[in-house]
Batch of 2 targets.
Target 1
Amino acid sequence: MPGTVRDDTPLWLFADQLSPAAYGGEHAHREVLLVEATSALRRRRYHRQKLHVVLSALRHADRDLGDRATLVQAKNYTDALEHYGRPVLVHQPTSHAAERFVERLHRQGLVADVAPTPTFALPRKDFEMWAGTRTRFRMEDFYRDQRRRFDILMDGRGPVGGRWNYDPENREPPPKKQQTLGLPGPYQPDEDDIDARVRRDLDRMNLDTVGVDGPRLFAVTPTEAQHALTHFVEHRLPSFGRYEDAIMGQDWAMSHSLLSVPLNLGVLHPLDAVEAAEAAYNRRHAELPAVEGFIRQILGWREYMWHLYWHFGPDYENNNALNATAPLPDWWKSLDADAVTAECLRDAITGVRDRGWTHHIQRLMVLGNHALQRAYNPQELTEWFATAFVDGFRWVMPTNVIGMSQHADGGMLATKPYASGGAYINKMSNHCGDCAYDPKKRLGDDACPFTAGYWQFVHRNRDMLAKNNRTRRSVSTMDRLKDLEAVLEQEADRQQF
Ligand SMILES: Cc1cc2nc3c(=O)[nH]c(=O)nc-3n(C[C@H](O)[C@H](O)[C@H](O)COP(=O)(O)OP(=O)(O)OC[C@H]3O[C@@H](n4cnc5c(N)ncnc54)[C@H](O)[C@@H]3O)c2cc1C
Ligand code: SF4
């Protein structure tokens, strides 16, 4: 719906578009409208800290933009726009539902025009050109083209160092005889009067939330995001790649950047993060595998997931190729970590309860793996990830949860399901030594729920797995298990994880 928009048309920013790239540049002269819609806060059962970061971000943007900005508190967005009384310009929002909503507002005359989303590196139309008539997508192809296009870690036409991919170096288990990586703590913003007010307002609103309240751990302004990025590059980037796939019970942040919140709010631009990492390599502060590993996450995975969200379309999130119908258990939904015996799962649920955040491998290989094994309904799970995590936004869920984690798209995104037994978790974490279960056992009181659950998963999905070259062997191994019937019976009766 492009058109010409008047110079004095104000700009409406959603809470995930609080980016200088959105309100600066060609829009630097516009007044800015920000909206706090109470219906959006009440619509779902969000993590308390998620609501805090979103409100804090909006109110900080209002303060930082000074006279330019008007923050309207209203029941919903339509009421806010009607109250504001002037048609607005808005950037393309970040979900299918919001896009349909903005189209409706445009027809009603409340939205004057829609500009492209400025919070990702690659414009949507450029991805569609890249996608062309492809029917199979490989992140690696996309990532290499992103490197070329944005000239990141390039040496002429080839990659710096002669290789595009340092994944093989980036899969180390946690260091032995250490409880933590021994890094300085991650950047933590200082809370201010705005945070205090947000906390008071959230208390007063008496919302139905999950998780505990706690100090704000994530950057919500461009200035804080810059500090968080600098701190990460200085202290964590050098060991980022190496331990990217590892889990340590006593080290919740490890080498991760904690930048997903500022990136998803828009207060940090992905190219700024990527360029800061590249500069650290150029000044020999961090080795190539670490820097490449980090850049791959942002210029590769994050952008890829964003664009596939649009490319696969709104029906993608309804996929349930493995017919997984089990409801999420109450202990899971209420983040009752104390009800969990399995150390790896208890630690991951504790992270979600206390911070609304766990790192990628806990999301994929502990939480996602457990849900996949137990056939939790992928749509319910998507909703859970979107609401229980501080960085959960609609666009990021379907490809990560339906696709990567639950294989509910039948393999459109990943060539095989991310299912694994306790042996993998034992290798990549230091949890099993402290656990009441034994990762080597699939039968008995101390049978590891991941090891036994893996065979339950293979059994339930044997036809699909037998057809896939990468998983066929699991089925033949399962067929040789003499105690399979007993394992399946045990897991069908299991009440405790
Ligand atoms: C089941 C599941 C659910 C997830 N839910 C979310 C979510 O709600 N919000 C979210 O931003 N990410 C999500 N991710 C991706 C990833 O786990 C988080 O981005 C990351 O853990 C955030 O922590 P970090 O900023 O320290 O990341 P780092 O480990 O420091 O990585 C750097 C950045 O790379 C980006 N990134 C890496 N992988 C992905 C990916 N697969 N999708 C999108 N961005 C990626 C993120 O922006 C992240 O900040 C999910 C992954 C899985 C498997
Ligand atoms: S033994 Fe099993 S349940 Fe316990 S920590 Fe290891 S993988 Fe997790």
Target 2
Amino acid sequence: MLNFLRKWRKARRLATIRVPDALWTGVEQKLPFLDYLEPADRERLREFAREFLVEKEFHGAHGMPLTDQVMLAIALQACLPILRVGLDAYRGWVGVVVYPGDFVVPRHETDDTGVVHEYDDEVLGEAWEGGPVLVSWHREGEGPEGVNVVIHEFAHKLDMQNGDVDGLPLLPQGMSRAAWAKVFTDAYQRFCEQVDAGEETLLDPYGADSPGEFFAVASEAFFETPCLFEQELPRVYEQLSRFYGLDLAAGERRVRDKRRCHDGLPLRTFGS
Ligand SMILES: [Zn+2]
């Protein structure tokens, strides 16, 4: 009965949210990687984004103005990681707090000798277990390059579904935890070596912080630069592709072929 009421209330509230086509298009144009989705998934993403706006409560911190564009852009990106599993993966919490840029989180940590250390940590985002998601929102062209805070924090939310942020989320049926752990452990170790050696990496070096951060930065690159990701980390790509239920590298190739076709360039040259 409760479930029925919940669904009924949600349907009523959903009916009140109408997003004009021009607003969808305007926001989506600034998220070009959404083009890598199949058309049916694009539709699904819009539906999930509407539901997300109904279910979650947005708060602007430090005077952050919450425009329709900002909320829609966050909702669309937050729903990317749950296209396969649905919004139930984000149940149990409602708050999305948006800051106008980096923000400071006070930390208290007790070391092995029992001494408490208090300090301010400057962050771009944070996901709390059973609590809100905090994200920074930069004006166009002002944010850190190659970072997608929204996908990052919501990947952490998925990781938290089965406890700690350890880079091992709840896997769908048919996926092997042992295979995931082996692929991610090997890739993480190699990544840490590259970062330590000062090599340039496709993934944000922040991923070397812990296996949980590695999973989150890998998820950002999986959605934003799938072809490069597949080339550089094919085994991790395969695991993420099965986990998220999306083959985005194929989508990116489709988009590129279409563009070449549109520009009148040859698609591919064979046999020469
Ligand atoms: Zn993180």
